[in-house]
Amino acid sequence: MSDTPFGFGLPPEEPEDGDEGKKKDPTGGGQGSGGPANPFGFGPGAGGDNPFAAMFGSMNPNDLGAAFQQLGQMLSYEGGPVNWDMAKQIARQTVSQGTTDGSKDASVGPAERTSVDEALRLADLWLDDVTSMPSGSVTTVAWSRAEWVEASLPAWQQLVDPVAERVGLAMGDVLPEEMQAMAGPLIGMMRSMGGAMFGQQIGQAVGVLAGEVVGSTDIGLPLAPAGKAALLPLNVERFGKDLSVPQDEVRLYLALREAAHQRLFAHVPWLRSHLFGAVEAYARGIKVDTSKLEDVVGQFDPSQPEQLQDALQQGMFQPEDTPEQKASLARLETALALVEGWVDAVVHEAAKSRLTSADALRETMRRRRASGGPAEQTFATLIGLQLRPRRLRDASRLWASLTDARGVDGRDGLWEHPDMLPTAQDLDDPDGFVHHEQLDFSELDKMLGEAAEGGTRKPSAEDRGEDGAGDDGPRTDGKDDDGR
């Protein structure tokens, strides 16, 4: 800690990465390169590396009032661990700026809505032949990128809040206990700034992701309201732009994937909570790097809020290397792989005889899910994990083998309970899982059903070893029905 109150002081001249000769210039918020310093680090050309460019744009004297107003909003925030109002604002601004290839968002027209609706309805008809699960789509929608942002933010909140909560609590613990009472305003300011920084970073990531996703289930998690199957026509067109595949086939293939995800999440009621619960369990095991946070607090200059942003971008937390944390990560990765593998298998079965480019589209989607994009890398830094199915191909082969060995009903029946699903070890030995003896859960289901219906069942004649005696016949032992 420095000698100045609460550790406030000027940031060091040398950059944290140690690169020689890279002093912080006036437009980067530093104090060591001469010339008038910009207290917020915003200046001409501040669009690429400056995380606040999306909020403030290029700074000039006329922008200072807006900059201070934004800073005041950040410091006055008193909500949860993430400023989601700011996240929404930044996401929409990022969407409005367009993608790196110059593609701009646009409202969806009637013709595009009709094409999406027809594709999703036809996809559901095709899936009827390859899965025992009925349609999970109540409505079909065609979204612009901005509409996808609006619809998906509640799900992102459920994903990110547990992690942000851990960081927010850590911000209040970096000061010595005897100083915390005196530093109440500082702690509150740090938490407000942390919520704003998380909101700004999440907003940028969601905005970038809005330019990449083609539906509501691209990352393997249900981001849209239940029963709402969605495609983004603009992104569907971009997806197929360089594939030399007819646009109708591209749309139908992506509609099959969206409709298959909808069936799974609609008819496996425990699946959503299972996946989001795995993310929460993972977040509980995150260990905040308090030493890095202490350095940030010790050198924090209120006129340079981007220091906290830099700390978030560099990652202030890592998962603890404990058996519990490893189990949480394995559980999440396996669940994502099983979801994506099932979708991959059933979609290929439905498409292979109907779409001439089914194989090419399948391989394109597999590579896309395996590599991820820049937005997924951002979430990997913020959440501490990558929302990608690492073993998609293994899981797809296992589901296909199960179809051959047990049929569609036998394969889909495994989704009745999480304990019946293949494990990570089963992905290593799919043949062993496919051909091992199937457990008979009928008696267990019968017992559970009887217990749910009201407890004790009167013994039947078969239970008593009698022939022809009714359950309600008179007792001959002089006792009542309770044995008294």
Are there runs of 5+ residues with pLDDT below 50, and where?
1-58, 460-484
Helical content class: 55-70%
User: Number of helical runs?
Assistant: 20
Sketch the major β-sheet.
2 strands, parallel
Number of strands: 4
What percentage of amino acids are in beta strands? under 5%
With strands numbered from the N-terminus, the spatial order across the biggest sheet is 1-2
| Terminal residue distance | 77 Å
- Residue-averaged pLDDT, rounded? 74
Return Rg in Å: 28 Å
Shape: globular
Question: Which structural class is indicated by helix and strand composition?
Answer: mainly alpha
Order of helices and strands: HHHHEHHHEHHHEHHEHHHHHHHH
Description:
- The chain is mostly helical and 484 residues long.
- It has 20 helices and four strands.
- Strands 1-2 form a two-stranded parallel ribbon. It has a two-stranded antiparallel ribbon with strand order 3-4.
- Helix 3 runs parallel beside helix 7 and helix 4 crosses helix 9.
- It is globular, with a radius of gyration of 28 Å.
- The termini are far apart.
- The N terminus and C terminus are likely disordered.
